[in-house]
Amino acid sequence: MLALLALVAIYAILSTAIAVAQLAESGPLVHLAYFFFTGLLWVLPAMVVIRWMIGRPDNQG
């Protein structure tokens, strides 16, 4: 669970930093498209983390 939370936090910071650095002069539609795309793109690495969490053996004894 901590890996998933870290992934989301780091992804949000990186995608926002990229937007600020690269899209400063762009219009609102470009911003909308960028944040729509990056808002959906985080799901791919999250699926990998979730599969990893499901595949781990349960340590509850």
General description of the model:
- The chain has 61 residues and is mainly alpha-helical.
- The chain has one domain (2-55).
- 79% of the residues lie in helices and 0% in strands.
- Helix 1 (2-22) packs antiparallel against helix 3 (43-55).
- The protein is elongated, with a radius of gyration of 16 Å.
- It starts with a helix and ends in a 6-residue tail after the last helix.
- The mean pLDDT is 88.
Question: What is the terminal separation in angstroms?
Answer: 20 Å
Radius of gyration (Å):
16 Å
- Range of helix content: over 70%
Number of discrete domains: 1
| Topology pattern, helix = H, strand = E | HHH
Count of beta strands: 0
Counting H and I runs of at least 4 residues, what is the number of helices?
Answer: 3
